[in-house]
Amino acid sequence: MKSTNLFLKQFIMLIVLSFSIFSCSDNDDITPPPRPDHNTSAVLILNEGDWSKNNASLSYFNPTTGTTIADIYNGQLGETGQDIELYGNKIYISVAGSGLISVLEKEYLIETHKIKMEIEGLQSLAPQYMESYNGKIYVTCQESNTRDGYIVRIDTTSLKIDGYTLVGKDPVDLAITNGKIYVANSGGSNYPNVANTLSVVNLRTFKEEEKLTVGLNPFRVKADGNGNIYLTYQGVVGSIPGGFQRVDTYTKEVFELGDHPKQDFQIFEDKIYFYDVTHQESGSTHNGIGVFDMDKQEFVEQPFISDETVITNTPYGIGIHPQTKDVYLSTTDYTTRGKVLIFNQDGIKQKEITVGINPKGFIFF
């Protein structure tokens, strides 16, 4: 009898919670996936969508049960999904073309808020990449007309913008370490006359202190927790190669590490996992996964993929599952639904799932 009463109480609480969450959402048509089993884990994959097609999406995957849902947003996420961030009990998704941040509650994966990226005196802002720190979400944004770049700060309690500051042209990724925000200014709107700076913003004053010179067309940046920033830069296709750098935030020295990777990467334990993309003009190596040993400051020579897997489509995003240590590599042909290939630490493919168009971002919980 006790177990029956407990079940009824939990069922009633679930109904009340679901009703309250749906009532404050701007979109009542979003159908959440099955509630994640807390004895297992879940993976969300952000799919960018086709450019100007308004078809960004969010895929769900449960590694334990194998459950996969291609789009829990039912086609209503918006235009150009850019980044996804888990902080506390909320999930934040930047939707650049729609000029908003979508907020989901983690427990039931239901959207509760849309934060419009609007600031008085500025044109609409296109949110790019995000980083969370001390109760705030920091978002790089590109202004729609001038392409001036800003960091916008969102309070995670009120879910309102509570500050912004100017950085360089066309900012993309950012990383936070030692009381500073490091922002890659790509200058991509002036291509091929792109930028080569890394803005340094003081977290306390929320003002840019200086710009460091880095590789041409910087893209992804990540902090290693030891005072270093690692970054990829893309150069100019056909004329100036891209590459990989480490910035010592204490001495402000920039160290060249190699001509790859040029795209996305993930820091996990003492390694950096990255992918390269075949491109005849830029001379990139191959479609595959590589590893950089941060302790030795050198690339691991042995190919990561050890089985017969051949990646034919273009790699587009990479993630590392924090519990299983599996490496998730997303691929795209830019027009149809993409794939996510899952490899164990021995480089053997465990599974392949079909998700949305242009999959690029992962969160694991």
Can you offer a commentary on this structure?
The chain has a 4-stranded antiparallel beta sheet, with no helix packed on it. Strands 4-5-6-7 form a 4-stranded antiparallel beta sheet. Strands 8-9-10-11 form a 4-stranded antiparallel beta sheet, with no helix packed on it. It is built from 1 helix and 28 strands. Strand 2 and strand 3 form a beta hairpin. The chain is globular, with a radius of gyration of 21 Å. It is mainly β and 365 residues long.
Question: Keyphrases for this structure?
Answer:
single chain, 365 residues, mainly beta, four-stranded antiparallel sheet
Question: Mind sketching the topology for me?
Answer:
Layout: H1 2-24, E1 43-47, E2 57-61, E3 68-69, E4 81-87, E5 90-95, E6 100-105, E7 110-116, E8 125-133, E9 136-143, E10 149-155, E11 160-166, E12 171-177, E13 180-185, E14 197-202, E15 207-213, E16 218-223, E17 228-233, E18 243-248, E19 254-258, E20 265-268, E21 271-276, E22 288-293, E23 298-299, E24 314-320, E25 327-332, E26 337-343, E27 349-357, E28 359-364
